[in-house]
Amino acid sequence: MTLTAAGMLLLPSALAFIGTLFLTAMLIRRCRLPLIAMVPFGVVSFIVAMWMLSGANGESGFPDLMPAILLRGIALGFLFLPITLITLLELRGTAIAYGVGLFNAGRQAGGLLGVAFLETLIDHERALNQSVLAAHILPGRTAVTERLVALTRGLAAYGMEQGEAAKVAVRLLGREVAMQAGIIAFDTAFLVVTLFFFAAAPVLIGAKVLIARLVSEPAA
């Protein structure tokens, strides 16, 4: 997939995110829905989107990836505005500045830590997967021989000399192994994000309840 194609794939997700922000604001303002009501829907939608992406493969195209990408944008729209309002709406006076600063610092730090963790995980998984796959690419194996023969014939059909075509076929097979290792690594990363949200959602809800009780106890 080219960079332009990747941008075209992500563009509907951005539009869905913007549209969901407006929808969330309308539901809060006109329908008087509580802020917390849309957070579970956003979390569940994000979990489902990540789970759908974890099943992608080298043959996945726009029709396969678009539903998950759109659902991801919708989920972020239902999460971003309510969480921001829950965090800042009840602050007054100088506390607003401190609240905005802490909120942005926490969001930036969490984003950077998450990206760093996922990049490290993907690099580790890619190397591990490539070594495991390469261990099965052995000379003399029927599947390997058939694949090399098919690649060699395809290159020779385009006018490449037979000996050179055989060498290029070996390099192409190695590139295919590396690409498959990367795909499996990304699938693992999406699955890890899914499991993280499964574990984080109850923890966040429990922390919210605990903090509310601790704050209300002195006033009692």
- C-alpha end-to-end distance: 60 Å
Q: Helix- and strand-based class?
A: mainly alpha
Largest beta-sheet characterization:
none
Percent strand: under 5%
The helix-strand sequence is: HHHHHH
Mean pLDDT rating: 86
Low-confidence stretches: none
* Total helical segments: 6
Oligomer: single chain
Key phrases:
0% strand; 6 helices; 84% helix; 220 residues; single chain; mainly alpha
Describe this structure in a few short sentences.
This protein is mainly α. The chain has helices spanning 3-29, 38-53, 62-88, 95-134, 142-157, 162-219.
What this model shows, in words?
- The protein has 220 residues and is mainly α.
- Helices cover 84% and strands 0% of the residues.
- The chain has six helices and no strands.
- The protein has helices spanning 3-29, 38-53, 62-88, 95-134, 142-157, 162-219.
- Helix 1 (3-29) crosses helix 3 (62-88), helix 2 runs antiparallel to helix 6 and helix 4 (95-134) runs antiparallel to helix 6.
- The chain is elongated.
What topology does this entry show?
Blueprint: H1 3-29, H2 38-53, H3 62-88, H4 95-134, H5 142-157, H6 162-219
